[in-house]
UniProtKB/TrEMBL annotation:
<keyword id="KW-0963">Cytoplasm</keyword>
<keyword id="KW-0378">Hydrolase</keyword>
<dbReference type="GO" id="GO:0003676">
    <property type="term" value="F:nucleic acid binding"/>
</dbReference>
<dbReference type="GO" id="GO:0033890">
    <property type="term" value="F:ribonuclease D activity"/>
</dbReference>
<dbReference type="InterPro" id="IPR044876">
    <property type="entry name" value="HRDC_dom_sf"/>
</dbReference>
<dbReference type="InterPro" id="IPR036397">
    <property type="entry name" value="RNaseH_sf"/>
</dbReference>
<dbReference type="InterPro" id="IPR051086">
    <property type="entry name" value="RNase_D-like"/>
</dbReference>
<dbReference type="GO" id="GO:0042780">
    <property type="term" value="P:tRNA 3'-end processing"/>
</dbReference>
<comment type="similarity">
    <text>Belongs to the RNase D family.</text>
</comment>
<keyword id="KW-0819">tRNA processing</keyword>
<dbReference type="InterPro" id="IPR002121">
    <property type="entry name" value="HRDC_dom"/>
</dbReference>
<feature type="domain" description="HRDC">
    <location>
        <begin position="208"/>
        <end position="289"/>
    </location>
</feature>
<protein>
    <recommendedName>
        <fullName>Ribonuclease D</fullName>
        <ecNumber>3.1.13.5</ecNumber>
    </recommendedName>
</protein>
<comment type="function">
    <text>Exonuclease involved in the 3' processing of various precursor tRNAs. Initiates hydrolysis at the 3'-terminus of an RNA molecule and releases 5'-mononucleotides.</text>
</comment>
<keyword id="KW-0540">Nuclease</keyword>
<dbReference type="Pfam" id="PF00570">
    <property type="entry name" value="HRDC"/>
</dbReference>
<dbReference type="InterPro" id="IPR006292">
    <property type="entry name" value="RNase_D"/>
</dbReference>
Amino acid sequence: MHIITTTSELAKFCQAAAAHPFVTVDTEFLRETTYWPKLCLVQMATPDEAVIVDPIDTDIDLTPMFELFANEEVVKVFHAAKQDVEIFVNLSGEAPKSLFDTQVAAAVCGFGDSISYDNMVRQITGAQVDKSSRFTNWSHRPLTDKQLHYALGDVTHLRDCYLHIVAELDKRDRWDWINDEMKALMQPENYIVLPENAWKRMKMKVNRPRDFALLKMLAEWREEKAQKQNVPRGRVLKDEALFELSQQQPTNPKAFDRLRAFSKGFGRSSTANELIKLVEVAQKLDKADLPKIPRKPNGPSPKGAIGDLLRVLLKAVSEQEGVAPRIIATSDDIDSIVLDDDADVPALKGWRANVFGEKALAIKHGKMALGATKAGIVPVKVTLEDDE
C-alpha cells in the first residue's frame, strides 16, 4: 500500500497518471467543527496503480495533483462528487476538469436515484465494501491498516464501476443525459457561498420587507463570520436566532433578555453590539430601498389537479425510461411548471424537456392526455376540433 507524504512522490504519481485515460479520486475529511472541510486523505487510482496521499502532519505541496486535475485529457472519476470537489475548490480555487460522477451516471443507467457507493459496487462487481471505518477520525495519526484498506477500496472498486457505467451509457446512448450535470459539477461558483447570497439557504420566511432586509443583512454578517473564523454557521448564530432578530429587532442590550434564542446576559457581549448596529441600519432604510420579498407567480395551485396529472406523467415516463423519477424532474420542478410555462427548472431544459417537460406543458394546456393501457399509463396526443 503506497502512502504518499512528499511532493516529489506526488509529482511522480501524477506524471504517470497523466498518461492514462482516467483516474479515480476520493477523499476523507472532517467538517463537524469547521466551515470549510478539513482534508485528511486523498485517494487516487489509475488502471494500474493506487495510492493514498496524506496531507496531515506533512509538508506536501498538492500542486502536482491540482495540475493533474486541470488536465482535460484525463477523466477524473468520483462517486457523489460534490463534497470532494468543494474541498478542491476551497484549496485551489478550481474544480477538476473532465469530471465524471458515477452516482449521477448510474442514475440514468437504471441504478436508482443517489445510489450509495457500496450498493453500486455490490451490484456491479459483487464485492462487499466494509463500511465500519467510514465515520472514524480521519485526522488522527497513525491511521490503522483497516482505515487505509477501506480508503483505498473507495478508488480501486471505482475503476471497475466506471468502466461498466461508461459501457452502459454507450449502450443506452445517454451521454447527453449527464453532460449538463457534469458541467455543473465543474463550476467553482457552485461551491462558493457569497455572503450576500447566504439568505437564500434559509428555509424560514418573513412577511414584512423591513424584516426581510434585516434578515438578509444578518445572514450576510453570519456567513462572513463563519468563513473568517472557519466555524459552522450554527456556531455563530443558529437560523432560529436570525429569524427572531429579524422580527423582534432589539435596539438595546436588555432587549436580548426577552428573546428565546439568546442566553441571559448575551446583550452585554460584543456580538450583541454588532447585531444592534445592523438593526439600526435596517430601521433607517427608506421604504423605497427595502428589498421585495420573493413571491411565486400567480397561477393554478401546484397541489391541484394539474400537478397531480404531471406527477402521474412523471411516474409513467420514469418507468418507461427505467430511471428514478427524481432524475427526470423533482416535485419542485413540477410545482414551478404548474405556475409558469417558462419556469427556470431542469425539467424544461435539454433531454429532460424532450422526455418530460414538453409533454408536461402539453398536458397543462389540454394538448395531451394520459391514457390507461395494458402496458401502463401513456401520454396521448389530443386533437382539438374547431368549434362550429
